[in-house]
Amino acid sequence: MLSRRTLAGAVLLAFAFATPASAQNTVKIGTVLSVTGPAAFLGEPEEKTIKMYTDKINAEGGIKGKKIELVSYDDGGDANKARTFATRLVEEDKVVAVLGGSTTGTTLAMIPVFEEAKIPFISFGGAIEIVEPVRKFVYKTPHTDKMACQKIFEDMRLRKITKIGIISSTDGFGKSMREQCLKVAKEGGVEFVADETHGPRDADVTPQLTKIKNTPGLQGLVHTGFGQHGAVVTRNVRQIGLQVPFYQNHGVASKSYIELSGEAANGVRLPAAALLLAEKLADNDPQKPVVVAYKQVYEKTANQPVSTFGGHAYDGFFILIEAMKRANSLDPQKINAEIEKTKGFIGTAGIVNMSPTDHLGLDLTAFKMLEIRNGDWVEVKAGS
Amino acid sequence: MAEFLQFLFSGLTVGAVYAMVALGFTLIYNASDVVNFAQGEFVMIGGMVTVFAAAAGLPLPLAAVLAVLIAVAVGLLLHALAIEPARGASAVTLIIITIGASIFLRGVAQVLFDRQAHGLPAFSGDAPIRFMGAAVLPQSLWVLGGAVATFLLLYLFLDRTLLGKAVLATAANRLAARLVGINTRTVMALAFGASAAIGAVAGILITPITLTSYDAGTLLALKGFAAAMLGGMGSPFGAVLGGLLLGLFESFSAGYVSSTYKDAVAFVTILLVLFAMPSGLLGRRAVERV
Description:
heterodimer, A: alpha/beta, Rossmann fold, 2 domains, 12 helices, B: mainly alpha, two-stranded antiparallel ribbon, 11 helices, 2 strands
């Protein structure tokens, strides 16, 4: 009897000693990404990017001698699961910071957990609600949907387009961007004359587009909604012969969007990050070395074309790593304070200048207005 | 008028997709009283295998044939490994098994293939056909033609061949069917194989329009099931009718009412129909077998 109790005690002791011993040499960073499920096209490149650079940093000796230990969870795009994993990261894994939330939905579900636990959380979700109002421990790296709307309207204004239609996906991102576009329409100098929606997996959206096409005075069209399904909308626009200038959004910005849309993609404009241009950027562009290096590393390791989504993870990861180096501490609060002080960080999305009132740190110059020509991205001057 | 026609064509295209999925449900239901929720995965397999075989260098027709063969193999395996060992279990148990199989197939697909969306080149070009102001994709005609051909073949098979009658007999009363010398196990396997083939053909035809991905089957199975219920479970004609009606409901409500409520309008209509006619528009009147 005694021996069993002794044994149990020994095991307990062993654990008690083992845990702090390993904790001294590693630093735990959590990720909750949508690696499977409908948002997998976001989560997959994000996870690959983070793993890739974690391995690289660990191979080079870690952060000030401490190896990074990733604790990764896949929420499958489900906000409920994301929240469960968030709680697990805080209570069981005891991570010092968290990257992720591939989508706005999963991010919003996780925010309360990390705010309460006072753990810095850098999201890759698109919508502005993540950082507005500013929450002390929540950051995000992708441009907001509001900025995308502003960039599109800026281009429209210069092309003298004022009466426009909007078709938005009913997914979280599509809905949120639609609201932001409607909100900034007035100051952007445009007026919405048609407003339609489509399901994120609809096989055909020609009825909605036909309705928009028949709206009198229509001069332009915007689509909000993320994912490769944007290709179906693009093809339908061409199918019914809708001739007005058509703007997609940064949520569809990947090479596969062009491939899936085929001919129909030509002439489509969209605001997107410098990463899509990479080698085609001007030589004096400060982002060029960063995005070209990331593109080459990613394409070599992951064996697939780079996407801006992986780029968001790259930005978040390095903002965190640099903050951890500056903080020189494993205290989440100190790391958080350093993330907030990020200045002049050159990422794939733009140059990041955080402040206590701005947890995104990007401005409109971070967006480039791109047009698809002959199956490739071309930067266009606003209004041309 | 142009507007109306555009809605009509859109509804028919989408409806034909639902109809083909519903036909797959019908065949298995007729043979075994099981609603096979892995039906959407057959559609996905058809599309994905074709995409990947074509990408590997196979000519499109050959890739399509390969996809159908693989889907049939999966269908037969599903029957042999999951349904057959549980024979004698209640229909509900078997339905739950098919839900499990659907999740399993989706998981395998995302490991074997990938998690991206894929398309196929349209069979006869991308240039839309203009018809009285409306624009139809040639591929839509392929989908519609595919649905009609599948329906005719299935109808002729069930109604005009001895084997088809054996399928219906098995559904009506398995014990009696066995007593008159029908090999019910073969009939069931046949139903799963043929149903997988129907699903795969649908998947190949629609991929140029709707794109496909490892999880494309889930929503299609749901809509196809709704279509089959609307038309009357077990009736091939009902499946086609239900599918087309569902597609038309969606497209006309998106066009004339509001795109925000289009799914709601479609499903509320189905609910109303089922309140009035619980066995669907053309279903067998429910007879409780004792």
